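User: Could you write out the 3D structure of this protein bound to S-adenosylmethionine? I've included everything you need below.
Assistant: Certainly. Input first, then the structure.
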Amino acid sequence: MVIHPIIADPVSEFAEEVCNGLNKPGQKELPSKYLYDEVGSRLFEVICALPEYGLTRADERLLRKHAREIVERVRGEVVVAELGSGSGKKTRWILEALSRHRPTSYYPIEISATALAMCERELADIDAISIVGCEREYLDGLLEVAARRLRGQRLLVLFLGSTIGNFDRPADISFLREMRLILEPGDALLLGTDLEKPVLQLIDAYDDPLGVTAAFNLNLLARINRELDADFVLERYAHAARFNADTRSIEMHISSACDQMVTIKKAGLSVPFQKGETIWTETSHKYSVEEVADMAEHAGFRCDAQWIDHEWPFAENLLIAE
Ligand SMILES: C[S@@+](CC[C@H](N)C(=O)[O-])C[C@H]1O[C@@H](n2cnc3c(N)ncnc32)[C@H](O)[C@@H]1O
């Protein structure tokens, strides 16, 4: 079963955001959520398998090793909601641990219909788990799930893969706070956070030699061509990954290889690019272990437990709504 989106006109919303982002004075920007159309969601799965991108394997190692303890710490009858589930592969460990105790409803909340379909296929074989896909933005989806829960049921929200790192500081805390407002005391949030590590290791992870991350990033221009009738010539753009020491984040950009003009018909926009000018498409902030517990506290959660992977520094944080 799928809960369908409520966006009245997705094409004009996309067109408006592209228009605003490319007209921004100074740095051109596009929202990272648009990286995930069908092609983008499939390319992201390949990124997760790349040797340079240790993040997903670290997240999965922690879930595999500690799933039983994690679910035991969340008492009572549980409903699981996952923000930006992607293919849901890692979530299997949590759902299997829960299903040993009781039948459980699982709501993957995704903006990408392709990711949602992958997730439903991936996890369909787990006994005692009923899956209801929710094709919504994070908090709209969470509101929908919260409204469906029965009295006495606890919500366990999963936000894995360090997707929280896509929010700028301190917007990450504001987002956690908004999430907290939807939850009830005693509900739980399992938050995956990628930890600080050497810059070269990070650059390799976001600019792999095979070019998969480059394809993932440039697909955003291809998507604008497909959906908004634009004329980006992809060969005239290049992927770039940069470390920003001030914000402790990796930034993905798309850099223009020459002076050029682009027309985006459905956005009613013609936009000039200078050689070397970039569009900023994604940020991935890196955290310290202590900082995550602090953020949690500022957002109205108590940090109940943290598990750390030392092979690829990454923390799984169990936060309880106060
Ligand atoms: C970085 S991927 C992480 C996927 C998965 N959780 C993992 O750990 O591998 C982010 C996922 O969130 C989804 N997403 C991005 N922005 C979203 C939004 N505003 N609302 C709902 N889903 C979103 C994307 O489609 C994508 O599948």
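The first strand starts at residue 2 and ends at 3.
User: Perfect, thank you.
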